[in-house]
Fold AAA+ ATPase domain-containing protein.
Amino acid sequence: MASRGKSHVLLTGSPGVGKTTMCKKVYEVLQGKAIQAQGFYTQEVRNSQTGSRVGFDVVTLNGQCGPLARTKSDVQSARARASPSVGNYVVDVKSFEQLALPTIKTCTENSTKITPHGKTVVIVDEIGKMELFSQSFISAVRELFLSPQATILATVPITKQRPIPFVEELKNRQDVTLIEVTKNTRDELVSDVIRLLEDSLART
């Protein structure tokens, strides 16, 4: 297990391994401990009839939801079809920015929602190819990692064959604990992540 003394936690792992589920469980525990948290997570969208995946939504921790990406066959307008894409998915950058950016920027712009220690937990799920089409998001994440008010729990993809420069930048930060999640370890890692976040919150 990674050492203590670091401010932020990055979860990485193969698609579908349970990184988002871990973030949700961590958030539930934080709520139970009355620890303030903000941020967003991404979730699959499936066709209600066929069960096939048709895209992804971004969901804020305060309950707002909107499209992050949809399959090319589900995108109607010419403008949308001209948007950035990852594989078979067209990314709705504007929708993503409208929902995700406020959950990040509120931590760097004001201190109205902080813990008694002067920090708040910010959950960012995820920092991946789709999200990184937004230059505003990249800038906001950089500012967030520099904020003394933020203790960050974020997810990043495994990028061994095709590294993503910004993801590598975050993984190589000295104040980050990088944890690889597997289906066998995801449940037991929740308590480890909680401990790391609480350790960070307790440090001024």
About this structure: The chain has a mean pLDDT of 89.
